[in-house]
Each structure stands twice: as structure tokens, then as C-alpha cells.
């Protein structure tokens, strides 16, 4: 069994008091913090960051709230009182949380902050509203691919760099008689994000400000390529049309599939379940129009409650190299800054190389009203029909185009 520490370990050191300077000079304060971490690895990562902040003389009192209940609790606390000093925020909740007055702008604190220029423009964009910045990026989910390094070496196949090469590798590594398939395709719940990547790789979606439209010929090419992985080339498990996160993970861990698309957050689960030398990581392959890989961020914000200076020191701690590396080692959640990603403890570990490359060029998900609902409720079901042979590419794309026009108007 692979030892996660030997696979991922990069030697994060315990943070010194001097690193935080200003926080240690003030009277000690306890900062309250709401988050929606739930897994054992997430809690371990949070504990590491908390310990580093506690070393300044301040402390954190964190409270985990189930993601499904998070907005309800924030809303209630905003109206009735009881907000924490700081809280976790995701981009799609930012407008609602800011409208409640639950978080405060931190633009004045960001201006001149030592890590201000270490984040990409898209990282700040995800926590910005009406010209104000409402928090600090805590970490990033960086999309990449996993592959069975041992299988590729045995077959003498190179890591694919384009969708064409990806298809060829998947075909070469498929052996249905032995229940082995080249690609663990996610055609079930959550599969719409992969469909978006494929569509954008073919240049099939035309973005114009706060609206989008479909290039029908390119969309047909994209949907045909992606569906034929299953229907023509047979490189996916027979269950692909219904496979979601758990199924594709188990398929890869148990040796059913040779390649998998996901993000850095699944690295810990896979590395703990598989043997040394089995896992390789790769940048998402380039399509005919573009190489598409997403980077999405999770943020920490201030509510304006309690000791605001201490709360700022707490959310700023997450950008410190030692804290970011410790969180990565515990969870697989990637540092949000390119500067930390270039730290030798990360840069010298080849498993992270695709994520480092993606961090500087990865795209956020489109922020267009009605777009995500279109992907989930229209594009994914139409794709599933293709996988099941109950629709043609032409019919599927025609409905996609019609419904996108409706959603945008």
C-alpha cells in the first residue's frame, strides 16, 4: 500500500511566531470561524492551519456547518445576530452573502498586502463584487487528470497531451474481457462540468459578456467525440452513463480504468488506496480549439464582528507557505498562489507539476445567469441519451442550442 506521506510529503515546517509579527504584538484574541469541511482529511488540514495561527498567541474557535445548511445558518445569523468573526465563502454564494451584509470588503487590507500580487486575476475575481474584494483565497481546486502510470509504462504509451492522443491511449489500454477500460467517464451526476470542458475545447460555446450561445457545428463535433468514447470505441465502463464521483473513483482505485478526470482534491483518497508507482498525474489534454482546465477557489471572509484585526490575521494565515503546504499534504487542496506553488516543497515533487502548470492558465467556471442550470438540466441529459443510444448528435445539439437561447433571453 502506498504511504501517503512518502508520496506527498514536502516537509512543511512549524510556523514561527516571527512569521506573523503584527498578530503576536497585540493582545491575544479568539477568532470564531464557520466552515463546511466534513472529511477527516479536511479536518486534519484545518487543524494544521489552526495550530500555526495559534502559535501567534491568538486562537481559533471553528464550527463546521454542513454545506446544505450553510446558507440557511448564515441568513438566520445575519438577521437575528450571531455571526462568527470569519467564514468560508464560495463564489456562487458571494452575491447573496454580501447582500445580507454578512461579510465586509477587505480591499483596503489587500492593498499593499505582501501576498497581493501572488494571486492570479481570476482568483481575486471570484471574491470580488461591484469593485470590492470580500475575502482572501484559501486554496484552489485545480482540474487535472490521473492515469495508471504502471499500465502506461507496460504498454509503452506516452502521457497524452491532446484529445486525439487521449482517445488513442484509451483505446490501447481497453480490454473488456478483463474488465479494463481506458477512461472512467463521468456521465452521471456532476458530469456536466466535464461536458463543458469538452465543448469549450472544441470552441463550441460563444461567450459574450453575461450571455452565451452555441456554435452548432462545433458542438456537434464535441458531443460526437465525447460520446463515441463509449458508443464507438468502447473505452468506458458499461455503467458510464450513470457513473458519478464515487463510481469513477472506485473504478480507478480497483483497476477497472486507466485514466480519470477530476481535480487535485481527490489525490489523497487515491494515493492512500493505491500502491506506490501506480498513479501519475497529467494536465488536461488540449482540444482542437483550446486546452481547457478549470481552477476554482474557496475563500475566507471577515464579517466585521469581534477583533477584526485578529480575524484578518487568521484568514491571511492561509496564504502563508507553511500553512498552504500543510493543507495540501492533508487534503490535496492546492495552494491558491502561484508563489507557494513554486515553493521547492511542491515544485520538486513531480506529482504536482500538472497542477502548477494549470494554476497559471486555468479558467474559472462561467458566471452567467442560467448557464449552470442549462448544463445540468439540458446538456447532461442529452449527453446521457447519446451514451444510451436513444438520441442522435444532431437532435441533442439542436435541443441544447434551443434551450440555451431560452435561458439567455
Give the SSE map.
Layout: H1 4-8, H2 22-25, E1 30-35, H3 40-54, E2 59-64, H4 67-80, E3 86-90, H5 94-99, H6 107-110, H7 121-125, E4 128-129, E5 132-133, E6 136-148, H8 149-155, H9 163-172, H10 192-201, E7 205-208, E8 211-214, H11 216-231, H12 245-253, E9 259-263, H13 267-273, E10 279-282, E11 295-302, H14 308-317, H15 321-331, H16 338-341, H17 344-347, H18 353-361, H19 371-388, H20 393-408
Parallel strand pairs: 1-2, 1-3
Antiparallel strand pairs: 3-11, 4-5, 6-9, 6-10, 6-11, 7-8
Any overview of this molecule?
This protein has helices at residues 4-8, 22-25, 40-54, 67-80, 94-99, 107-110, 121-125, 149-155, 163-172, 192-201, 216-231, 245-253, 267-273, 308-317, 321-331, 338-341, 344-347, 353-361, 371-388, 393-408, and strands spanning 30-35, 59-64, 86-90, 128-129, 132-133, 136-148, 205-208, 211-214, 259-263, 279-282, 295-302. The protein has two domains: 4-141 and 296-361, Periplasmic binding protein-like II (D-Maltodextrin-Binding Protein, domain 2); 142-294 and 366-408, D-Maltodextrin-Binding Protein, domain 2 (3-Layer(aba) Sandwich). Strands 1, 2, 3, 6, 9, 10 and 11 form a seven-stranded mixed β-sheet that branches. Strands 4-5 form a two-stranded antiparallel sheet. Helix 10 packs across helix 11 (216-231) and helix 10 packs across helix 19. With 409 residues, the protein is an alpha+beta fold. It is globular and about 65 Å long.
